């Protein structure tokens, strides 16, 4: 059956697709029959996911490197000719204590490069393909700490607040072209990155299911689990919410 006869197979790219939330996106999109593509830096991890999910395509790509991003998107252009969904998800919380300043400037720059600049570079390279897609959508993985910060990671909180504003403005700019932009605002999620944290965590599968529903409905932001209290809480009791997140 042709693509027009059947439900169209969506071409999707997930950055940071070998672990945690990104891997759950890759699994869910693969399960629903999409043409799922993903990237990460570890060649072994990329190969392992490709082997586990026949028909998926992995790329070894560091999303902080624009040359690598350009090479990956060139391959997708040759292979698929378009993108229908981009999940700009790669990121990492690194705790930083500015009481110990001066910190290594390279650490500071690397943190901003990954958590703020890389999703922007990724979207910049993917947009020509997304503009060729149908009902194209971008998901940016933000964080509850981008809405209300944590004292243990000021830089991460600032970077994710930047992601939040970027997502909002970009969504407005791309709306006339029919590309929707959704910010995913997760609470703590049960992934290897936060295995050391003894707090209540949501499953990555729950987060992904809520996000894909939100994308279908054209939501500008998705707040899975108890993150759903954030927007109203910040309007009604902002100081209380901030006191809680600063300590978490
Ligand atoms: N887990 C939580 O509680 C939580 C809460 C709020 C927000 N988030 C956000 O959710 C996103 C995913 O977090 P997670 O907990 O699922 O992380 P994770 O389990 O550590 O997975 C991170 C993924 O990103 C890849 N990655 C890291 N740096 C990369 C780079 N420079 N280029 C390409 N890929 C890279 C990793 O593979 P390689 O190392 O092989 O590159 C891995 O596939 C992040 O943006 C994070 O800030 C997480």
Would you write up a description of this structure?
The structure is a single chain. The protein has 8 helices and 7 strands; from the N terminus they run E-H-E-H-E-H-E-H-E-H-E-H-E-H-H. The chain has 248 residues and is α/β, with parallel strands linked by helices. It has a single domain (11-247), classed as NAD(P)-binding Rossmann-like Domain (Rossmann fold, 3-Layer(aba) Sandwich), CATH 3.40.50.720. The protein has a 7-stranded parallel sheet, sandwiched between helices. Helix 2 (43-52) links the parallel strand 2 (35-40) and strand 3 (57-60). It binds NADP nicotinamide-adenine-dinucleotide phosphate (NAP). NADP nicotinamide-adenine-dinucleotide phosphate is lined by residues 15-22, 39-42, 45, 62-64, 89-93, 114, 141, 143, 186, 188-189, 191-194.
Overall 3D form: globular
The ligands found in this model are: NADP nicotinamide-adenine-dinucleotide phosphate
What is the alpha-carbon Rg in Å?
18 Å
Percent in strands:
5-15%
Determine the fraction of residues in helical runs and give it as a percent range.
40-55%
- Main beta sheet, described? 7 strands, parallel
Listing every helix as H and every strand as E from the N terminus to the C terminus, the arrangement reads EHEHEHEHEHEHEHH
Number of helices: 8
Q: Please name the CATH topology.
A: Rossmann fold
Structural class comes to alpha/beta
Label the CATH architecture. Answer: 3-Layer(aba) Sandwich
- In quaternary terms, these chains amount to single chain
Count of beta strands:
7
Instruction: Specify the CATH class.
Output: Alpha Beta
Strand order of the largest sheet: 3-2-1-4-5-6-7
Count the domains: 1
Terminal CA distance reads 52 Å
Mean pLDDT equals 96
């Amino acid at each position: 059956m042709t693509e027009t006869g059947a439900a169209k197979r969506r071409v999707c790219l997930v950055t940071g697709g070998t672990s945690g939330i990104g891997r759950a996106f890759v699994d869910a999109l693969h399960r629903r029959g999409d043409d799922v593509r993903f990237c990460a830096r570890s060649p072994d991890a990329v190969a392992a996911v490709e082997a586990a999910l026949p028909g998926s395509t992995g790329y070894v790509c560091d999303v902080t490197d624009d040359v690598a991003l350009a090479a990956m998107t060139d391959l997708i252009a040759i292979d698929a000719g378009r993108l229908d969904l981009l999940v700009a998800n790669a990121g990492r919380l690194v705790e930083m204590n500015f009481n110990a300043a001066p910190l290594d400037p390279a650490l500071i720059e690397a943190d901003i490069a990954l958590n703020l600049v890389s999703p922007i570079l990724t979207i910049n390279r993917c947009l020509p393909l997304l503009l060729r897609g149908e009902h194209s959508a971008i998901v940016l993985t933000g964080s509850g700490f981008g809405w209300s910060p944590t004292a243990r990671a000021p830089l991460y909180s600032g970077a994710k607040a930047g992601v939040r504003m970027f997502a909002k403005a970009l969504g407005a700019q791309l709306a006339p072209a029919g590309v929707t932009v959704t910010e995913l605002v997760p609470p703590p999620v049960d992934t290897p990155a936060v295995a050391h944290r003894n707090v209540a965590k949501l499953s990555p599968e729950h987060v992904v299911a809520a996000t894909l529903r939100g994308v279908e409905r054209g939501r500008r932001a998705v707040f899975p689990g108890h993150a759903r209290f954030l927007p109203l809480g910040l309007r009604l009791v902002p100081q209380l919410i901030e006191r809680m997140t600063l300590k978490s």
